[in-house]
Design goal:
The complex is a heterodimer. By secondary structure, chain A is of the alpha+beta class. Chain A contains four helices and four strands; from the N terminus they run ααβββααβ. Chain A has a three-stranded antiparallel sheet with strand order 1-2-3. The chains are: A alpha+beta, B alpha+beta.
């Protein structure tokens, strides 16, 4: 995203990526990376609610309702006119507000700076977390051997 | 019948004040923080999220603190809280094949492609009390091995290559939701799974155990048990596309059961399915056994009168909040009710004694 021209709103895949990253981010970490909150007007003030999470019967079949999770959503407009949305996990309104501000800024010329300063560190932290868990899991990988039992001889 | 009573406000206030004091315990002992509960009593937090049917580790930890560790009371608090939340939508069905697994085992294939990964398990511990935990101390870091995080295929998928196991065809019907409409019987498999995943772990465990002991025998193997995180995606109408709104940790169990075939199906293996919030493998295994036992009608099996085959028995008694609500209300004032009973028994006694005297 070094080229601001490629940050067009139509770039859905990139936007999905950063929105997901912001939704999963730890609120305190996001606040450290982005302490400032530029002036904004809420089009939809931060709202805490529940989303019904669905699974599939037998992992591949018909959907069923597994249970709800908490999320916070908001929509806002920056002074430059850019509109940002956020749907983030949990009940932290400051998290949702920051995520929406970043979503809006990522559609402006500030995108490259913001990516380097906020999104890349967030993504690195997440990758490191996942990598550490995968490595610990890998250390518990086993080989079971089937033994010949006495009565089978 | 419950007839409202008045009064007792001062006693109730004082009782609650004392409850708060008892909750705190000895002030000389450091107070437990919600963060500590979330991090160090994580399996209790998982259970409260699963049975409370709301994935939010901070809230579940708070509920455990408030409930003084009474997990059913904590589930009650979570259920009450969730009714105050607006429903902002539903997710796309989570893709458990794309799970970032920390545990994945199979009791049916020792050479499961992708390998068997034990993860942070109690299995193979000796169940001896560890007195070292009495002392505070740093825990050495767990060993790590080179790994590339990525999805691991479902083990039952390998059985399916030869058509040896039934498949669940993709389907996009809107599932029934027992939090929105009262449960109607007979229930679809989707509705049964929703009731089981939020059902009481002890109840579901006992039902599953009863099938293993012969009450509705289904002889299950654990085809695969996996624990890990999955992304949760939701369609956002105002954006016109789906975004990830977070990730949840889940436990999934697929059991494989023998099936001798029916008029329409050749002999093959059938499945039971369990999917539960958090790291809750006892519950997930139990859920898949009970799911399979409840499928007797659909698979053309005999009804043996076993409780675990009886949909009404299982589904109407699995919810510990409904159960405890009805059970515990009998301790509340029933004075008018009981006066009527007292009057009735007195009259019957008098009649019985009169008849006895007349006979003598």
């Amino acid at each position: 995203m070094s080229n601001p021209a490629s940050t067009a709103v139509g770039d859905t895949a990139a936007r999905r990526d950063w929105m997901g990253l912001l939704a999963r981010a730890r609120p305190d970490q996001l606040a450290v990376l982005m302490p400032e909150t530029p002036a904004h007007a809420f089009l939809r003030p931060p709202e805490v609610g529940a989303v019904m999470v669905r699974g599939r019967v037998g992992a591949t079949g018909a959907p069923f309702n597994l249970g709800e999770m908490t999320i916070t959503r908001c929509t806002l407009r920056l002074e430059c006119g850019a509109v940002g949305h956020a749907h983030v996990q949990g009940r932290d309104k400051a998290h949702a507000t920051r995520a929406a501000i970043i979503d809006a800024l990522m559609q402006t010329d500030a995108a490259a700076d913001l990516r380097a300063r906020v999104l890349d560190p967030l993504a690195r932290a997440e990758t490191d977390r996942r990598q550490a868990r995968a490595e610990k899991a890998a250390a518990t990988k086993v080989e079971f051997f089937t033994m010949v039992r006495g009565e089978d001889k | 019948m419950y007839v409202a009573v008045k009064g007792g406000e001062r006693a109730i206030d004082n009782a609650h004040a004392w409850l708060a004091e008892e909750r705190r315990g000895d002030p000389g002992v450091a107070e437990l923080s919600v963060d500590q509960i979330r991090e160090q009593l994580r399996l209790a937090v998982n259970r409260v999220m699963a049975e409370g049917s709301l994935y939010d580790p901070d809230l579940a930890a708070l509920a455990i603190k408030q409930a003084r560790g009474d997990l059913i009371e904590a589930v009650f608090l979570i259920r009450a809280y969730r009714t105050t939340l607006p429903r902002l939508g539903h997710s796309r069905p989570v893709d458990s094949a794309a799970m970032a697994c920390i545990r994945r085992i199979s009791a049916t294939f020792k050479d499961a492609p992708g390998g068997q990964v034990l993860g942070p398990t109690f299995d193979y511990t000796h169940r001896l009390l560890d007195f070292k935990l009495l002392a505070e101390g740093a825990v050495p870091a767990a060993p790590a091995s080179a790994a590339t995080p990525g999805p691991v295929p479902h083990i039952t998928g390998f059985l399916n290559r030869d058509g040896m196991i039934e498949t669940d065809a993709p389907d996009e019907t809107t599932p029934p939701d027992l939090t929105r409409e009262p449960m109607e019987l007979p229930a679809s498999r989707q509705l049964r799974l929703q009731a089981l995943t939020r059902g009481d772990e002890g109840f579901v465990l006992s039902m599953a155990y009863s099938t293993q002991r012969g009450y509705g025998r289904t002889h299950a193997f654990v085809g695969e048990l996996r624990i890990g995180t999955v992304a949760v995606e939701m369609d956002i109408p105002e954006l016109g596309f789906a975004v990830e709104i977070g990730e949840v940790e889940l436990t999934e169990c697929e059991t494989v059961n023998q099936f001798k075939g029916s008029k329409s199906e050749p002999p093959q293996f059938t499945r039971g399915y369990g999917l539960v919030f958090g790291q809750s493998e006892r519950k997930a295994i139990a859920m898949s056994l009970v799911d399979r036992a409840l499928r007797w009608k659909e698979l053309g099996e005999d009804f043996n009168g076993a409780p675990a085959q009886d949909e009404e028995f299982v589904l109407m008694h699995a919810d510990n909040i409904q159960a405890t609500g009805f059970l515990e209300h009998i301790k509340l004032p029933h004075y008018v009710d009981f006066q009527a009973e007292l009057e009735l028994v007195r009259r019957m006694r008098a009649e019985a004694m009169q008849m006895q005297e007349a006979a003598e």
